[in-house]
Design a protein that fits this description.
The complex is a heterodimer of chains A (194) and B (564).
Chain A: H1 6-30, H2 37-53, H3 71-79, H4 82-85, H5 87-101, H6 105-126, H7 144-147, H8 167-176
Chain B: H1 2-35, H2 40-46, H3 49-67, H4 73-82, H5 88-95, H6 97-131, H7 137-142, H8 144-147, H9 165-171, H10 173-191, H11 194-199, H12 201-208, H13 211-221, E1 228-230, H14 232-237, H15 240-243, E2 262-264, H16 269-292, E3 295-303, E4 307-314, E5 324-328, E6 338-341, E7 351-356, H17 360-370, E8 380-385, E9 397-403, H18 408-422, E10 432-439, H19 446-462, E11 468-474, H20 479-487, E12 503-505, H21 510-520, E13 525-531, H22 534-547, E14 556-561
Parallel strand pairs in B: 9-10, 9-13, 10-11, 11-12, 13-14
Antiparallel strand pairs in B: 1-2, 3-4, 4-7, 5-6, 5-8
The chains are: A mainly alpha (194), B alpha/beta (564).
Amino acid sequence: MGQIEWAMWANEQALASGLILIMGGIVATAGQFTKWYFGVYSIGAGVFVCLLEYPRGKRRKGSTMERCGQKYMTKVLKLFGPLTRNYYIRAFLHLGLSVPAGFLLATILGTACLAIASSIYLLAAVRGEQWIPIEPKPKERPQVGATIKQPPSNPPPRPPAEARKKPSEEEAAGAVGVSGGPQENPVPVIDEVV
Amino acid sequence: MGNWVVNHWFSVLFLATWLGLNVFLFVHAFLSYEKADKYYYTREILGSALAWARASARCLNFNSMLILFPVCRNLLSFLRGTCSFCRCTLRKQLDHNLTFHKLVAYMICLHTAIHIIAHLFNFEHYSRSQQATDGSLASILSTLSHQEKGEGSWLNPIQSPNMTVEYVTFTSIAGLTGVIITIALVLMVTSAMEFIQRSYFEVFWYTHHIFIIYFIGLGIHGTGGIVRGQTEESLNESHPHRCAESFKHWDDHDSHCKHPQFEGLPTESWKWILVPGVLYIFERILRFYRSQQKVVITKVVMHPSKVLELQMNKRGFSMEVGQYIFVNCPSISYLEWHPFTLTSAPEEDFFSIHIRAAGDWTENVIRAFERQQSQIPRIEVDGPFGTVSEDVFQYEVAVLVGAGIGVTPFASILKSIWYKFQHADHNLKTQTIYFYWICRETGAFAWFNDLLASLEREMEELGKVDFLNYRLFLTGWDSNIAGHAALNFDKATDILTGLKQKTSFGRPMWDNEFSTIANAHPRSVVGVFLCGPQTLAKSLSKRCHQYSSLDPRKVQFYFNKENF
């Protein structure tokens, strides 16, 4: 289990918890349950967690599949620097966020799931993992013109006549069976078509 | 379109049946709880949320029953074996077991959400009617437990106005098991996301065993009898249609109506999950038994680019082309089983796999064998599973496309075709094969190179050079390689692979390939087989439609995409 990046799983778990918090919050608020204001909090916390967790971090080894449209949130997260990079902060943040939702039955599932995500993040932090943003690849295509070098100023050194036969001319010579063309064949060409 | 229907009719039928059953069970349960007299008083407090909760519970039971079947791979193999006379499409369906397993899992998640939301409303309604002081029918019903001592013919699980819904949830069997199994479900789903499963298999594998908690919890979930309906006796005595209006006068001396008596709904989850649970236990026992049988490693070959080939023997092992086995190496990890496609042909007297370094477990295995100790690590094998392509032998002309690691099953297929050809096997209808191998660079597949080279040699000896036509496409080329190749254009063998067929660079131009094949075989049925990415599948199947002639007597292309 040496190469596992726990943060990747914690990320999935936290994202799922965010969605569960939002759903529970909506049910409690719409149904006007007792203590429904916790539901409102839960919706807010859920949205925040989802936004925070949406951009996937870069894996240390191998390529990472981005989530659709995550580059906008990546930019926002990068602004916060160490606050978003460090997983200890995330672990405690999620733990803190999950507590108020635990007072309402509708959102208690979100609390449990977010607390689990927080503990996986803690494990990731202990193992020294960090959130690295996925940078867009620089869109560099080699310009066609740039690969053409300056035309040579001297004519190429010419190898002896036999070696100068090009494959296309060799085929043409073979097919036609005539030793025409710009060079003289020192050996007579025999058509050996069977 | 016609091709798609021919290839997929069974899947469509199967899924339609499954969805239909789900809808039927949901609607049936919904109507029964919404309309039945037994739950008249329950509905008085809870409203429609009762029916929603029970209907989704019925579907949850149904899907929890189904979800274990697709992963009983030995059972499926057995079914496949007995169905040898079945059409090919039935056998292909049995290979889509994992897809079905995931679909059922998503359905379980959906119904879990409905079930939980409905029960949240239920608890809230119970709580409100317990606290209501307006003397309505609902509040009378909620106070019923105070009337009867002892057995308690109560309806509302919330017994006092001070009891919170959270308290009831965590002190009732249903509530507590519900929370536990939902958390288990969430953990199973998040660790099974494609990304996690592909990259960190161990996390997925170990976490997914929480399903044991899920099933045990599900079985216990309904034992508390928290959903209550009126007893038969009470219905006969004081039917709600007669007595509901006069609820203020229940148990009065001159009233015909007594207080209704309630009983808890008997638990039914265990009835649904008992059979698949037992089957799955058998499956695990069978896997264990099969894995205990001795596997003799006859040959270990280290190929370039860290590819390990293991040739093995096991008593009673028989395989078909393109099948895969699960391999366990107890000295590396006691519990992990990893799947590998078999690279040997059924006609050979051993079976082999090629292990490429692609993660923790594979690297450890390769290292363990590299050390060349006198005692090679023990290997356990379960399988073979899956079936592919006996269809390959049924087509006069076969077009085989292997992309990247997808080339592995074709090793088995090509070898088998060659053996059949040599022994003039009547089952082999194939006259010509076009094999396209597309990969970034041949490094990790140098062993496949050698296979092609030896096939090439043997065919030359037999004088059947045009039986197998293969083209290798390197997509990871750069100008150096291309330049080198151009300079050595006139050499007889390819400089990169040493094969007689030249390596091409970039991706194949399928339009050219298909039209060449169509011209060369104007009256044949051509089977196209792919093991590779989805985008390539789309591209090939489009070409198959395009180049199939409208006249059924002329060239027809049939596309088969297999999940190897």
